[in-house]
Amino acid sequence: MLKKFQNDETLAEAVSDQIESLLQKKPDALICIAGGETPLKTMAELVRRNKKGKIDFSKAYFVGLDEWVGLGRETKGSCRQTLYDYFYDQLDNVQPDHICFFDGKASDLDTECKRIDTFIEERGGIDFILLGVGMNGHIGFNEPGVPVDVNAHVVDLDDVTKKVMSKYFDQDLPLTNGISLGMKQIEQAKEIVVAATGAKKAEIIERTIQSEPTTEIPATLLKNAPNTQFFVDQEAGARV
Ligand code: F6R
């Protein structure tokens, strides 16, 4: 389902409403929020509601979506830095051991993937996932041509991702790989929101909405999941 919002603020409010009502029903829900720019407004809105006592995250669980291989929290622009600085560390009463995040510097990345998969399995799957969409349609670091039937795995970054990534970092980084939840466990999430904001996303949103599910545009694969909502602002939704 496609839903258009006036702007990125109203979109962030709608996502926050969904998370708020989920936590009322299931205080220990497992929530996954992407890094990158798109979710920043939602994170700010959730923090605001938490400070006002409207949302209680004290029993909630969180899992990371992805990370650049080789990066940790000390690198501004890493997924870990984004999620911790703008979200987890801003919330009152979050239990640190309820957060499971990819370690992009792990020496054994396969073991790291298994650790994340186990955390998700032990919680009975992801309850709510907020995703952004890459300029090439990627979801997390599931790049075009992605295998559909995998859980957390190591990925070769697509050329488009390598080009776009400089917007996150204040230095040139020779990054070639990512570590990401897989489409299988993403599609199994009980509520999925794919969000896109801004004019630069208009073309990929058009392609995503108009195309049949194809691994060439990973975002389209989420159309197969019954609980997927595509949330766009006016600019990102200008062609659909
Ligand atoms: C980030 C992630 C990526 C981004 C996507 C959109 O953790 O998983 O898939 O969601 O590249 O990035 P932004 O939101 O910066 O446009």
Automatic annotation (TrEMBL):
Keywords, in A-Z order: Carbohydrate metabolism, Hydrolase
Gene3D superfamilies given in the database record: 3.40.50.1360
Keyword GTP-binding: no
Domain of life: Bacteria
Gene Ontology process terms (BP): carbohydrate metabolic process; glucosamine catabolic process; N-acetylglucosamine catabolic process; N-acetylneuraminate catabolic process
GO molecular function terms noted in the UniProt entry: glucosamine-6-phosphate deaminase activity; identical protein binding
Pfam family, one: Glucosamine_iso
GO CC, one annotated term: cytoplasm
Keyword Hydrolase found: yes
Coiled coil: none
PANTHER family: GLUCOSAMINE-6-PHOSPHATE ISOMERASE
Protein name (Swiss-Prot/TrEMBL): Glucosamine/galactosamine-6-phosphate isomerase domain-containing protein
